[in-house]
Amino acid sequence: MNKGKVTIGMTQFACVPDKDANVAKAVEQIRALAAGGAKIICTQELFSGQYFAQIIDFKEYDLAEPIDGPINTVMSALAKELDVVIVSCYYEYAMDGVYFNSAAVFDADGSLLGNYRKHHIPEGPQYIEKFYFTPGDSPYLVFNSKYGKFGVLICWDEWFPEPTRILALKGADFVFYPSAIGSEPDNPDLDTSQTWVDAIRGHGIHNNFYVCACNRVGTEKATDGSGEMSFYGRSFASDPWGRIIKECKQDEEDLLIAELDLDEIKRARDILQFHRDRRVDSYAEILNLSL
């Protein structure tokens, strides 16, 4: 079965304290990506603001919006106007006291295909996400859009092999990983950017499909002035063999446009039969948190 090719795009920009300016920047980059031929476009994680989870401050809950709030109203209309699919990453208000780190996906007619809620929530120095985000209750979703069939996993999700395998088995041809990842405040000399790239490429190899990781750039100060974080960019796409086909600059704003040859997925899977040779009958122990 011939699946053909699809061109994807991803944003990579520095976020500023002003929400309207960030949304305008995202719109600008999405327009540029669409003009460059991208048909499915992914925004970086929580693109409408700076990374607020550096500190604990309950006032930041006021940043959350419902799924039909101002950000997604803009993204839905833009998808329809440009005839593109948009992955819109936002801080979701579900009900009082319940907030998710989410990605709404709009088809090329502006309709909502679905809403993925980040499952894996980290906790570490200046990555204090458990205070802000409820663990996602959505399934691992595959979006069957006008231009292609894909999944979305958000940032910390990308470090775990199981969600990507589930999306592959559900029929996704590629996965987007919108992210906000950079410096490690307690290990300032540690550069995790290559580890990040290699871990996600590994998911593509293990499932013989395309993976597309999207990150922000820039240095952002904690709102109370207690510290700062720098985000390294390096958004990239790799093929079913793990080869990088396109990579953005490190530490600079950029755009990523990459053509994915979806027929290469079948070729890779016919040669490397990872899915066929799984031994699901022997994996029960993995459901335990410790052994």
Catalogue the unreliable spans.
none
**Helix-strand makeup class:** alpha/beta
Summarize model confidence as the mean pLDDT: 97
Q: Give the helix tally.
A: 5
> What's the total number of strands?
16
Let me know the largest β-sheet: 6 strands, mixed
- The radius of gyration is 18 Å
β-strand amount: 25-35%
Description:
By secondary structure, this protein is an alpha/beta fold. It has one domain: Carbon-nitrogen hydrolase (Nitrilase/N-carbamoyl-D-aminoacid amidohydrolase). 22% of the residues lie in helices and 29% in strands. The protein contains 5 helices and 16 strands. A 6-stranded mixed β-sheet has the order 5-4-3-2-1-16. Strands 8-9-10-11-14-15 form a 6-stranded mixed β-sheet, covered by helices on one side. A two-stranded antiparallel sheet has the order 6-7. Strand 6 and strand 7 (127-128) form a beta hairpin. The chain is globular, with a radius of gyration of 18 Å. The N and C termini lie far apart (43 Å).
Note the topology:
Blueprint: E1 5-12, H1 19-35, E2 40-42, H2 70-82, E3 85-95, E4 98-106, E5 112-117, E6 123-124, E7 127-128, E8 142-144, E9 149-152, H3 161-169, E10 174-178, H4 193-207, E11 210-214, E12 217-221, E13 228-232, E14 236-238, E15 244-247, E16 254-261, H5 263-271
Parallel strand pairs: 1-2, 2-3, 9-10, 10-11
Antiparallel strand pairs: 1-16, 3-4, 4-5, 6-7, 8-9, 11-14, 12-13, 14-15
